[in-house]
Amino acid sequence: MTTSTLLETTLPRTLDTWVARFERAEWRGAVFEGWLFEGVQARRDAERRLRAAGVQATLRSAYKPLVHFFLEEIDRSELAGVTVRYPVHPLASPRRFLLEAYPLAGLLPDCALEFLPGGKELNYELTLTWKDGHQRQATVFAPNRSHTGCTGATLLSPTGWLRLQRPTSADADIDAAEQTDYERVFEQVIDTVGRHAWPLNEPYFERLDIRVDLPGIEQPLPVGHECISSHEALHEDIYFSLLEIFQRRSGRAPGDRRLQPGQIVPDVRASDAASRLRISLASFKVDPVASPNQGQSAGQPLLALLDTAPDPARVAGEMEGLEGKRFAALSRQERPVTGLYHAGPGPAVFISGGQHANETSGVVGALRAAQALQRQGDAHFALLPLENPDGYALHRELRAQHAHHMHHAARYSALGDDIEYREQPPLYERAARAQALALSGAQLHVNLHGYPAHEWTRPLSGYLPHGFELWTIPKGFFLILRHHPGWQAEGRALLEQVSAALAQVPGLPEYNSRQLALYERHAGPVPFEVLHGTACTQSEVDRPGAPVTLITEFPDETVDGAAFRFAHTVQMEAALAAARAWQALARP
User: Quick one: what percent of the chain has pLDDT higher than 70?
Assistant: First the structure.
């Protein structure tokens, strides 16, 4: 693998810079407040150093400051009631700061919690009521700056901030935003990539590596799979911001999934030292294709008991154990995209998984559904369990460092596009889906997907993930039905029958109810219809593919163990319910 370096640099750690700056004798007796992107232990250590120098220091998180206030400064067990008036700023969506307060409703399950819109000042205004009856008013500052983002839009984003007052001063000597190392790293990435002389045509590179080592926050929360991770957030911000840069460069509209810049790989790791950044171009590194590891070989659990995403050899082995006609395509990195067509007497169904390779429960769910259909003896289906093997390989590479991060860099292909939206040759992986539909003649495509199991943010680009705002916090397992013109009735009937079947899956109604309730506290009413306890949406599209497509969405990104087994069980049950229902709905 050949590489060339675009930038390699070290940036001073803001926390160390602040301590060195304000522990000087001239600041003795001062009151110092600072907000930055550091974990609680590092901030407490810095406070002790400053207090030893005679400075009364309080250091807070600039990322999700309200949540950190309740984690660090309040005994939540003694609270009886909380009223939160959240900022409503003209440069942000009305619910932006309510969403940034997520998952406070989950952290205060036994407390009377009320959220109310406030003014445009960047403060949360709180009324806290304790169980003994006494009350306290509190203000939590949310430091933000306005700036122009990579799409050209004006954004309001969290930032570092300093407030400092000498004992002899009537007013604050400093009260202003101050750029932190976390923000500088991001700025360096954007500036370096934005200024580079890229080729005129896509793809611009094979692989663009962005290696970052920096201090930050990794704090699991006692709510579902939630974890406050500044490292994960930086990965997301770098990846999607670079997509926005290349979309503008190519002349494409924001969010165009046909963009093929190449493979963008942010690798963000925790460090206790000064921030290090290396940006480099590399050729593809392709691992040898492993031999199929069929079924449950020595030391491997049954497919139904898998508690994490299987390796590609296991997927290939499970495919070998199924009966039917094989077909295949090659990915951009020359990995096989293997499918199977199992002929039968009734209407065919096409089942796929792994289009977005960081959504791994659908891979297992598709294999389990195919095995169950084959046992019926008369099923008619096509199967493509792992559509994006290049992204899947990248996901495995990134998970070796952070097993519980979302890693959206692995969502798309090695070309950088969404496989489903690829229109021009060479089709690579997309050719396998075309073969599945041609061989089977399926009128229904069951496309198993996932989405983040915990909050998804882009804190340096306006906080909410641009173009994916509806996906920022989990809302349970839900269904998306897309149909060609004239197929509305079949699509509606399919949604009704599948959602009714899902209501019988043990544990799923309760799971959905919990997640929807927490979603609605922070995001408002779910923007979908709820059928039999499952959120659903239906729309007409005029795009290539089967006349009816049922997309499942399980919040599976980052989960493992029992949660992953539950995820792929639900995926399987949804696929089987759709296959059953379609036997009476398909057209001759």
Answer: 97
